[in-house]
Amino acid sequence: MRRPLDLRHVISPGLRDLIELANTGDFDRVTEQVRDLRGCTNPINLHGWTVTTDQATKEVVRSYRSEDEPTGRLLTTCGNRRSSRCPACSRVYAADTYHLIKTGLSGGKNVAETVRDHPRAFVTLTAPSFGPVHNCKTDAVGKPLPCACGAHHTEDEPVVGAPLNPATYDYTGAVLWNAHAGQLWARFTTYLRRALAAHLGMTQKALNAALRVSFAKVAEYQKRGLVHFHAVVRFDGPDGHTSPPPPWATFEALRVAVGLAVRRARLTVDSDAVGERVIAWGGRFKVDPITALGDGELTDARVAEYTENKVAGYVAKYATKNAEGAGTVDRTLMCRPCKGRGHVRGPDGFRDLCADCGGTGQAELIKALPVQQHARQMIRTAWDLGHLPEFAHLKLWKWAHMLGFRGHFSSKSRAYSTTLGALRDVRRAWRLAKARARLGLAENEETTLVTDSAWSFLGTGYRPGEELLAAHVRYDRALKERAKTEGDPWL
Questions:
Q1: In whole angstroms, what is the distance from residue 269 CA to residue 178 CA?
Q2: Tell me: the pLDDT tens digits for 5-37?
Q3: 32 and 101 share a domain?
Q4: Residue 414 shares a structural domain with residue 360
Q5: I want to staple 221 with a disulfide (CB 3.0 to 4.6 A). Which of 146, 274, 278, 326 is the partner?
Q6: Do 272 and 414 fall within a single domain?
Q7: In terms of residue numbers, what domain contains 438?
Q8: Is the pLDDT of residue 60 over 50?
Q9: What torsion, rounded to 10 degrees, do the Cα atoms 122, 401, 129, 272 define?
Q10: Residue 482 included in any domain
Q11: What's 3's DSSP letter?
Q12: Angle made by CA atoms 232, 426, 233, in degrees to the nearest 5
């Protein structure tokens, strides 16, 4: 019987736990589990089993129990899309988003390659102004222009995006715009089809019979704390990407229709506390053609930037971002035990003050957040509006850390291209093929394998010693990435 280790002299908890893991008897398996996570920062801990049986022969071809692991549990990646939470998993999500967007522009993965010949545009839609803010404008040749305050700002200055006069800035309008931005986008897609039919002198029924409009969009936060949307818009024939659009469905018609839809799409919000508000797009929007790499001779350098690869990379980059670009925090401020209400129901049925938040409903006090005053005021406004009866359905206290925005960061229409689920299925099939190879099964061998499993959630995160191993994995991956980009022969 192995004597327990006396590690009282080891001060570091991580090193102490690492020594314990090294003496489990199968340290190689411990390191293998951590290495397979590829640097995930907050893995899921599972307990359970899985058994794969050949129903024809009743033979068990594979079995696994988490109890057989040196640590008694299985670690799997968290799958978080946000780079601020898990850079490793967000890179996978960004890669999937890149292929999803790129497929809709150049074909592949069951999408016809002829989509490259369809009219396609990169559309940018912005929010209106809710008051003048500090900015860092440039002229047509890139020369810096002074801000309205008289100073020349750089993009990384905290003051950029903050109101020139916070006392007159319409924080209520800004938060309500963020809260309804997703609905405004949905209305824009509807009005785009109507505007296109009106511009071409057709009925909507005739347009829908001859043309299909596909979208893929991503949301991005501006410095002033408002979201704006970048979207890929593509014209297809009536059967989708497999059929060419009619000759009259041109980029110019798309450009005109976007302008009409931007002006017509609007929502009206009525409240006794803040009055009637009209939610509409800002006057500044862009519609640029997307070209294949090396297509044509374009005289405008700005337009020439929008190639298939660059658009896909741009969308993938912002699909993993959150609101941290606007200077806010990346976690909800809602107290989970009381769900932001500040009270809980006691055994007697009466409301009792929440012991976790002291009745504020906030997991972290807004006044104590390490953010700039502009972001703090946006958060406070969203929190206050969320507790008004007419805005209760928006649950703004839950999304206050997002400055009121509660929509999807990236989305697409059904017929645009492949799906994230299909891309994940391909990875799953690849892993299954490797498992079949380990079992000695031919790649095309027909089997009657059935898998049964049962899993339970234990928690998240690493043990202290595993965290040291994960840090080494991240460091090693960072070196390899640096070697790729810089070409360092010593790495």
A1: 13
A2: 666 666 788 888 888 888 888 899 999 999 999
A3: no
A4: no
A5: 326
A6: yes
A7: 13-79+424-486
A8: yes
A9: 120
A10: yes
A11: P
A12: 10
